[in-house]
Amino acid sequence: MQATARPGAAPEPAANGVENSKVPWVSSHIQQYLATGGEVGHDYYGYPSLLLTYKGRRSGKLYRTALIYGRDGDSFVVAGSNGAKPSMTGIFPQYLEYEKQTTREIPVVVLDPRQD
Hints:
single chain, 116 residues, alpha+beta, four-stranded mixed beta sheet, 7 strands, 15% helix, globular
């Protein structure tokens, strides 16, 4: 199923101490993903996506964003390309294509599922 993110949707306020992305279309994607347990939102315009919750380096606050990913066995692979913009924020997995569009090094991150 494909998500239908609303480009102008307002970000959802922090719930359970986790603040969703402030980018309206990303926040909409997250809300749909959470509301349907991933049934709407996991397949995002033909690409698999995940929700990543992380702790702010300086603030210590919890934030959540949606990322498109690739797989390597049980691991999830994401790339911090930000659409090949000069800054290092944002994530997108089509690493080789985007790497050609920028002069900066694009970090690739392998996320391993937590073993509780």
